[in-house]
Amino acid sequence: MDWRGGRVAVLCGGWSAEREISLKSGAAVRDGLCAAGVDAYLIDAGADLLAQLIAAPPAAAFIALHGRGGEDGTLQGALEWLGIPYTGSGVKAAALAMDKLRCKQLWQGAGLPTAAFATLAADTHWAQALAALGGDVMVKPAREGSSLGMARARSAAELEAAWRAAAAYDDCVIAESWLAGPEYTVAILGDRALPAIRLEVAGEFYDYEAKYLRDDTRYHCPCGLPAAAEAELQRIALAAFASLEGRGWGRVDVMADGRGQWRLLEVNAVPGMTDHSLVPMAAKAAGLTFSELVEAILAQARCERPLRAGS
């Protein structure tokens, strides 16, 4: 089935902790596609999503769902089953990107740089775990986005408290050695890396508030790196994305450690597309309007089984 010229459903909302951000991303994507002449409409993904898609199949789906239920491979699998072309990575890559623990294990095996880490649980010896990671760590739910549930810990008591807070979001929690260097993000469109962005925040790290609510978060693009250093950062980001077999578009977050060495943080399979989001900023630096960006993402929509029964 050739979806080009047909109606495109922008899937957003959902039930994850990132629902409100996803609704904003979806509205922006819908508006951008319509401005490009695409017949796009919104679907707030609820319990009846599959019924809606079966009753009135779109020619393609633009996935703007963040977090679990939309960014973790489950929606991608459903769209594969229905034979509906969709934007972004496939089932395996999306599932891996959503799981920070599996990503880090994969990167270790592939020889890609990432910070030292450990999993946390109720029976963790907090002082020993902290010491093993250098005495200063970042605690994260393994399968959550938008920096939700993240906290820094520099004592055994802080580590246990951070684990409890993160465990409210996910039963898999990791701790990473604290990275003292600046944070960068690299947007990927097709097979190319867009200009890197350096993040400058008022708080300790780029948390939910800094991402979506504060006005004093600064985004530097050009990022200020020498050309060779930025090219190396882009190379590492592309390698990280390729290691998951990512496709279409995405974003790779990277930090430098205290010695200036790159350390991969995570891959975002469905990055935000709001007015505070990073991929549109990088695209603008590369000379793309927002409409051109979403049109380019849609142009790569695909499905491994592109024909539905009877189509």
Structural write-up:
- This protein has 311 residues and is α+β, with helices and mostly antiparallel strands.
- The chain has three domains: 8-87 and 293-299, Rossmann fold (3-Layer(aba) Sandwich); 96-114 and 179-288, ATP-grasp fold, B domain (D-amino Acid Aminotransferase, Chain A, domain 1, 2-Layer Sandwich), CATH 3.30.470.20; 120-177, ATP-grasp fold, A domain (Dna Ligase, domain 1, 2-Layer Sandwich), CATH 3.30.1490.
- Helix content is 36%, strand content 20%.
- The protein is built from eleven helices and 13 strands.
- It has helices at 19-35, 49-55, 74-82, 91-98, 100-110, 126-132, 156-167, 208-212, 227-243, 278-285, 290-299; strands spanning 8-12, 40-44, 60-63, 117-120, 137-141, 151-153, 173-177, 183-189, 192-193, 197-200, 218-220, 249-256, 262-268.
- Strands 8, 9, 10, 11, 12 and 13 form a six-stranded antiparallel beta sheet that branches. A four-stranded antiparallel beta sheet has the order 4-7-5-6, with helices on both faces.
- A hairpin with a 2-residue loop joins strand 8 (183-189) and strand 9 (192-193).
- Helix 1 crosses helix 11 and helix 6 crosses helix 7 (156-167).
- The longest helix is centred in the first third of the chain and has 17 residues, at 19-35.
- It is globular, with a radius of gyration of 19 Å.
- The chain starts with 7 loop residues before the first strand and ends in a 12-residue tail after the last helix.
- The relative contact order is 0.16.
- The model has no long low-confidence stretch (mean pLDDT 92).
